[in-house]
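hey m, so remember when u said the tokens were messed up on ur end? i reran from scratch. heres the input so u can diff it against urs
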Amino acid sequence: RLRFTSPVQTPYPENNTVHGLWFPASRPKGRAIIVLPHWNAQLQQHVALCRVLRTLGISALRLSLPYHDLRMPSELNRADYAVSSNVARTVDATRQAIIDTRSAVDWLQSLGYDRLGIVGTSLGSCYAFLTSAHDARLRVNVFNLFSLHFADVVWTGLTTRHIRQGFEGRIELEQLRACWKAITPASYMDRFAENPKQSLFIYGTCDTTFLPMFSEEMLREARRRRIDHKVVVLPCGHYSLGQSPFKFIDAYHICAFLLRSL
């Protein structure tokens, strides 16, 4: 277990401590990956991937996202404070996730790891992209279920219908895009392209949470900027990616890419 105080302080004491599960490889140091889970992930989810990476000689650190699992305030049953119709708190949670992740990069670097990468899934893929765009040390990236836009996903996704209902009569999509411009990947494509990075993008053709058109739009922007990347398209949805056989296919592509690139 890794535990440290978040540089970002919130009104919720539980959320102010960052928790990580650390899977150091027994082979010589050098390669390490930070794993950022999906929205509402439980503590043990994504652990299997970390164990496989450790076996392959890549150390892995699975971080708990703000307001998730051990960081969840006692009044919550879900990580509703991470993404909600509270526009400002959603921005703050995203900022905290990025700062916490960069702090974890500092920690890995202090241990002697110099080949660093990141794997993010769903909400974690947004956090991973924003972190990597602001941190040149993350040279290898896996964006597992991704979108160019933050507001549009919340507005159109099947999983986030309750959040859109909270906006009805108070804010429209164009206003929400403007409010969340600071936390949408679209705002940082140029910055991401400034540093040499290798990236793997994975998305599902039947995804009703991150609609495929938002993923395809991000890929067009990556190609336009000549970002070094590979694409894997799977015939599944957002949550069926976590079921057999897709979870095994997904893990194969992630591990094979990291072994080649890191």
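this time it looks ok to me. The longest helix spans residues 87-110. if urs says something different then somethings off w ur setup not the seq
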